[in-house]
Request: fold
Amino acid sequence: MQPHQHILIMVDDRELASGEVRGVVGARRYGDIVFQRRTLIERFRASLPAWAAARLVHVRSTEQLAAVRSTLEASGDDAAVCLVAGRAGFADTGQLSQVIERLPYAHDSFSDRLYQPLLVFLRNAHWLVAHWPQLEAAPVHTWPSPWQQCQRLQTLRPLDLGRLQQFLTLTNGSTASRHFNQVEADDYFYTKSSNDVQKIRAEYAFHDLAPEAMRSWLVQPFDYREQDGRASYKMMRYYLADAALQWVHDAFEADTFEPFLARLLFFIARRPRRACTVAIAQAQARALFVDKVEQRAQAFLAHAEGRRIDALAIAATPALGLAAQVQRYLRLYAQHEGDFSADHQVVGHGDPCFSNILYDQQRQLLKLIDPKGALDESALWTHPLYDLCKISHSVLGDYDFINNGLYQVGFHDDNRLRLQLALGRQSALKPMFVHQLAHAGFQLRTVRLGEASLFLSMLPLHLDHPNKVMAFLLKAHAILDEVEFGMADLQAKGQP
Reply:
């Protein structure tokens, strides 16, 4: 049995997301959707064997089909073609790689399903040329006739990303878990496990310790277990996209972002609170916004990779060095420490960044996941600004863009480092958050200063992505510039 050598792999990505999926990722081709720091077409390409990646054609418009047809017409009788719909999702890229690796040895045409297949292998590519007008009119996965002439593929069943439930099956948890965490999902439940037993135990205990009024915002955990040095719990699976996925894909518009913010800030306003002295609030603020920054900075600079990244930043732009930034931050904090005064504490979520917020735009359903956790009632209480700073570093600080790789670290003409972000409508939506902050009685400068502390304190947690660390340093520096030299422009845009 001789393998055939002339195989073309074609991803037909002409279709734009529509319906409920469009509400999650905006009007874009499926191949442009970002999943775990890569677009889906990049993820597909990376899963291919080398020979197949070299023969991959990514078709984004009907005009591109002419070149594909010319290639097929010029090929011999042994030419084959594998058609993959842009909306085909592959949860297990290893299985995809195995199927593609076997194509040279396939002597029969096959499809993944009888009707509207997402993957079709045609042993005779000239069959497709004979049906070219039909292909130009619409991708093969929309053709109504059954693919009875093909065998059925049994080893791989692509997800249809045009269906919201299947899209969320692939992309839920699109922000990669930390190395010590593991998240598994089936049709009904999520199971989160970790070798950090105390953290998992605290996350599980948080729901029952939290006051009843707060529990409706949380996804309830159950079935807590400890075994072989790992702990785990389950949660009911909600087919909701996280807000980070929607935010970075430009899926929010003014009329959908405003109610999202309103619900989120309603949660902030209604968190259970208890009175405390100003001294207690200031001490807690210092623990969260000062002590943690100093401790994390020490941990970062104690690591060889941290020192290497820091040296690169200083060589290009001395003011970006972590020691200089921490010193500047502490000076600004001391200058504005009175702004962190409070007469109460709240039950805080601890990490309400957008990736921990599940949200349905149409139904305005909001659920919070992955709280910081608590092992006793006293650990529930936190400073009232901390959660708000976490939200701000997603809205104003572009954290989710950096975390998803949607940025570039480059140079100005004078060789100073700069951060470029792939922002769309988000720039016009940010002032809505500023306005709602002011309406709720919060001071923008204080929130942004707290936000800068988050970027500085997370540096040692991301040493596995040096470029991301550089982006965090640049973002922290930009925020400190705003705090020190004025925020008039952003505040003015936030006026009603």
About this structure: The chain has a mean pLDDT of 92.
